[in-house]
Amino acid sequence: MRAAVGDGPVVITGAGGTIGTAFAVTFGALGLPLVLGDYDDMGLAVTGAQAMAAGASQVRTVQGDAADPEVAEILVDACADLGGPSVAIFNAGICVPGLTWEQPLELWQRQVDVDYWGPVHGVRAMVPAMLERGAGHVFAVSSGAGLVAPPGMGAYVSSKHAVVGLMESLHHELARLGSPVRASVVCPGNVFTNIADNSLLSLNIDPEDFELDGVAAEVDAASRAGVDAGAPAQTVADAVVEAVLDGRFWVLPQPELALGALDRYQRLADGRPPADLL
Ligand SMILES: NC(=O)c1ccc[n+]([C@@H]2O[C@H](COP(=O)([O-])OP(=O)(O)OC[C@H]3O[C@@H](n4cnc5c(N)ncnc54)[C@H](O)[C@@H]3O)[C@@H](O)[C@H]2O)c1
Q1: What's the 159 CA to ligand 1 centre distance in angstroms?
Q2: 109 in a domain, yes or no?
Q3: 160 vs 156: CA distance, rounded Å
Q4: How far is the C-alpha of 190 from the C-alpha of 90, rounded, in Å?
């Protein structure tokens, strides 16, 4: 690990959540320092304690909104006296179901702010610091919904697609520079977490009061059932550690997800309509 990226801190946004905790504990167990971000200070404290118990050399926490560019700067500043960031994982995310034309605009915009602009701010803050130290690896957590487009979550799907494009473009830029700094995109399939209710709570919506009907309710139920039957978060953390070591761009913790993407492009080439995978 140290040979690949040095021994600076690992920055993780959304660290108070389920996948964020798996990242923190897994990188902590490697004895690295961690800089953890989330707007949920309780979640941050719990994750920080777990990461210290796992072996992290130290943990710093930054409570703030991943959609705020200043918070991204605070996260990078928190790494400065530790040699600058070695790894940064833009993991904070929310997903609120609803049909594309029905979902209230403020819910649309908030998802784009967190799920798309969050990684943009992260890249813009972390990459210059990594270029300066001549090492580092940035990861953005997209989704299988960044490779195929299920219904009933248009804001999430379009943000996660944009994140794939962002990281691919960044990958080419770094390669053209001949820089050792790497960029990767992580596309998990379903992972067992509480993202559906957490996302509503983050918007001050009580999940009990959030009502959908018709097609929106159908696809929400299918999506929740998929997440409930999803892989353990550790699968995602293990795939990212492996990607730091082998420098791979595409990180698919559930490799079978590539089949859906291949089918999508085959349909594109054949002129057939896309498949509804939900
Ligand atoms: N669970 C899945 O099936 C799944 C699948 C693919 C991708 N993902 C992605 O994985 C990432 C982590 O999700 P999770 O499933 O662990 O959910 P989670 O709800 O357990 O964790 C998300 C964390 O992000 C934090 N967060 C949300 N918005 C934030 C903001 N604006 N600023 C700071 N922190 C914020 C939350 O407080 C929470 O701690 C997300 O980007 C999600 O889109 C999840």
Answers
A1: 13
A2: yes
A3: 6
A4: 18
Which residue(s) pair with 137 in the sheet? 87, 182
Q: What is the pTM of this model?
A: 0.98
Of 46, 42, 40, 74, whose CA–CA distance to 59 is shortest?
46
Active site residue 116: no
Report if residue 220 sits inside a domain: yes
Place of tokens 């804001």: 155
Q: Is the CB of 21 under 6 A from ligand 1?
A: no
Domain ranges, residue 105: 2-269
Instruction: Assess if residue 276 is contained within a domain.
Output: no
For residue 100, the domain's CATH number is: 3.40.50.720
Question: Is the residue at 8 inside a domain?
Answer: yes
Contact 103 CB / ligand 1 (< 6 Å): no
What's the number of domains the chain is made of?
1
Structural contact between residues 31 and 43, judged by C-beta atoms closer than 8 angstroms: no
Type of residue at 240: V
The string of pLDDT tens digits covering residues 4-54 is 888 899 999 999 999 999 999 999 999 999 999 999 999 999 999 999 999
Atom 29, ligand 1: residue with shortest CA distance: 92
Contact residues for 30 (Cβ-Cβ < 8 A; gap 6+): 1, 55, 241
Distance 70 CA to ligand 1 centre (A): 20
Which residue in the list 39, 116, 156, 265 is annotated as catalytic? 156
Q: Is 38 in the pocket of ligand 1 (CB under 6 A)?
A: yes
One-character DSSP codes across 112-157: IIIIIIHHHHHHHHHHHHHHHHT--EEEEE--GGGTS--TTBHHHH
